[in-house]
From TrEMBL:
Superkingdom, taxonomy of origin: Bacteria
Domain EAL intervals: 23-272
Name of the protein described by the UniProt record: EAL domain-containing protein
Residues of the full protein shown: 505 to 778 of 781
Amino acid sequence: AKSGGRGVVAFYDLQMDQTVRARRRLEADLRGAIARNELRVVYQPVVDADGRPISYEALLRWRSPDHGDVPPDVFIPIAEDTGVIIAIGEWVLREACRTAAGWSEGLSIAVNVSTVQFRVANLAEQVGLILSETGLAPARLGLEITETALMRDRDDTLEILRRLKAMGVKIIMDDFGTGYSSLSNLQSFPFDKIKIDRSFISAMEADRGAKAIVKAIVGLGRSLDLPVVAEGVETEAQHRIAVQEGCAEAQGYYFGAPGSPPDAVGVEPPRTSD
Ligand code: C2E
Ligand code: CA
Ligand code: CA
Ligand code: CA
């Protein structure tokens, strides 16, 4: 393994260097993305058992002139590492609440909140300010958090969640089934709803185990009084099974991909003079 070893090392060094540099460029460009108007929010419907939209999930999109469309799975972790998620997270919240305030009152909005945002102690205050600023009723806002958000600083996180809950905001456990110590988290934190991770939904048809897990989660939700949402529903069959297993709500390409927000209801469209 010695002969040619140098070449190999040099090759990897070069690759690593390029990766590090690409990442630095992404980091730097992400910092200015809000100011340069490169971020936007798309909305994906969440439907009830009859297939009617009752809520929308706000999902971030970043279109960079240099990097093209960067998927959130790539830029959110970078934003978290660099702390830029604090500013971006606040921007998404404001944008989504402002948009949802124009919808009919039967529709709510769900916004993803990163672990890092819980480490700014004023998250509850920030949400309160945005709600009063946009006029959105607190009960129409849901915050989606994953279990990793609960792992760190449990007491502080719990305190923030309690304050949000006291304001009337809904707390949604996202990607349920993929994290750690799920069951005790459901009991200790003030959740209003559970979203089953889409890996179980997509496996449900072919894999009895996945279906059994969905059934078990729904049963657990029922005993804890938590409605369950099936995520990533792509086919009619998946929806049928999800409803049959007792999922109260569903979300996925089958009902609509993330896109433009629904029309505002009861709000006059702005008139243009030309
Ligand atoms: P998530 O919160 O689990 O969001 C659901 C993801 O599944 C979205 O990907 C959505 O487009 C995708 N999806 C929806 N229906 C289907 C389906 O039927 N099939 C498949 N295969 N996928 C479906 P997206 O928009 O790329 O977002 C990826 C992740 O990035 C999100 O996962 C969330 O963790 C994170 N993210 C997105 N926007 C935000 C944000 O504003 N703040 C934070 N903190 N994270 C965000
Ligand atoms: Ca989510
Ligand atoms: Ca999810
Ligand atoms: Ca996810």
